[in-house]
Amino acid sequence: MSDPQHSVLLNTGSRMPLVGLGTYELRGLEDIMLTVDAALAAGYRHFDTAAVYSNEVEIGQALRELLPKHGLLRADIFVTSKLGPRDQGPMAPAACQQSLDQLGLEYIDLFLVHEPGTEGLRVEDPQNSANRAQSWTALEEFHSRGKFRAIGVSNYTVRHLEEVLASCKVPPAVLQVEFHPRLVQTELRALCAQRGVCFEAFSSLGSGALLSDPAVLEVAKGCGRTVAQVLLRWAVQQGIPVLPKSCNASRVRENGQLFDFELSQEDMDKLTGLDCGQRYDLDPTSVA
Ligand code: A2P
Hints:
NADP-dependent oxidoreductase domain-containing protein; alpha/beta; 9 strands; NADP_OxRdtase_dom; single chain; seven-stranded parallel β-sheet
């Protein structure tokens, strides 16, 4: 998985590994050390955290302590973090610096605005849009100083993405959104492809709901792989980076084994045919 071929080229010229460890709900230094250790051993070179996950300090410490054990340098891994919704707008510059400090890193490979809304504002409040613009300016400034190697957005709809594309100095390198066979995000993917933004998936397992889908089970049985591997492979086979999150070392290993098998076109189409617009995570559609 650490093979450079298993990565995507961003509009910054840097490469981002196709598989990253999602770390939402991963807490406590002991568990984080075990999980990050298992991930590095399994070949993961991409780690995705966020200010709101409240684990930046422990993720940073785990990486600092474990990289030498695996014979790796900082430059061998790709770290993503995100600006929390309570820090949108005037608070953004201080929050950007805080993520760098908490992770204990000289630079972050990719830094995202976590969601279009601001905590404490009603979704229809136009201040949401003004705050997003101010946040983006802060990310651009950290990017220009080399502190954020790439910048992007998360949970943005077509409208939010078009807004930042129309007003930015530095275009987003990545859009990270919920993506799985029940939510194939056709319009957002087309916009990303057209504007050179890398489309990245979270919740590939539909927060676990897709693990018992009969059609996915059938595909898994047919190719002798686990349901989680089939769901993750369906995305990476389309060139879409995935961020499986697991607090369990053996599932971390399982989720990383995606490049030694291929789904047939028939199976790919069968999975894509499950689309029904179902979300298991936050719905950002109505945020002004
Ligand atoms: P756990 O941490 O106990 O492994 P999603 O990424 O769609 O939000 O799904 C994450 C959920 O799926 C987590 O609750 C995680 O639980 C579980 N999960 C992650 N990988 C696997 C796997 N390979 N098989 C079964 N469940 C998994």
